[in-house]
Amino acid sequence: MSLCDDTLLCNFPKCRIKLNGFAWVTACSHVFCDQHGSGEFTRSPAICPACSSALSGKLDIVRTELSPSEDYKAMVLAGLRPDIVLDISSRALAFWSYQVHQEHMYQEYSLSQAEGQLKQMEKVLTQQNQSRELELTAMRGEISSLKKVMEDYKRKYSEMSERLMERNRQYQKLQGLYDSLRLRNMVVGVGERDTLPQAGHHNVNAGMNSDLCLCPVSIVLNQSYPTVINENRKEAQRE
Fold it and tell me: Can you cite an annotated GO cellular component (predicted)?
């Protein structure tokens, strides 16, 4: 705000709205909106909300119209000597200058506060970025180690798959050999069962033939044995 600005701001700490209509002006060169002025200055004793000054004089607080009518402006200083008019005008300008100076100080203070907060936020942001960078680096390391572990597992899985395939091939081969041997044993067993009865029948026939061959010999021996005995008896009698 400069001297050419046509709007004052309420000096109440939590208000600071642009003033229009009516305003409350104090002897300590502060100005307040009609709402806060009515609330603060109707109590006794009156205390300035901006600087805590006591306002006990009759004219220490004035409710004034910020946009007076043309008739008021024509008559308010009428009849006063020029030095009085200049004195009043200089005091009014001094009030305005003080308001401009206070506004500059307030803006500088707000700017310094904002800069301080900005620096603090930048510091916090830098720390957070560093922390995030460290976390990101750690996560990258973990990802790299996990990739290595995954590659190791893939390699082991490939080896196990190859071993399993080789075992399956060996199993299939052994299964084929087992099936062929079982089939061969089954064929041999059937052949043996078919040949065993024929061999038994041949042996029986051979026995019968041998008996038939031996039977005439025994008959001949049985028939000739008594004759031999009689001849031996006759020779013994002669002697």
Answer: synaptonemal complex
**pLDDT tens-digit series, residues 41-50:** 988 888 999 9
Angle at 24 between CA 21 and CA 29, to 5 degrees: 125
Residue 11 has φ and ψ, to the nearest 5°, of -85, 0
Residues 121-150 have pLDDT tens digits of 999 999 999 999 999 999 999 999 999 999
Q: Where are the domains of the chain?
A: 9-67
| Right CATH for 9-67 from 3.30.40.10, 3.40.50.2300, 3.40.50.720, 3.90.25.10 | 3.30.40.10
The structure tokens listed for 226 are 């008594």
Q: Is 86 left (phi over 0), alpha (psi -120 to 50) or beta?
A: alpha
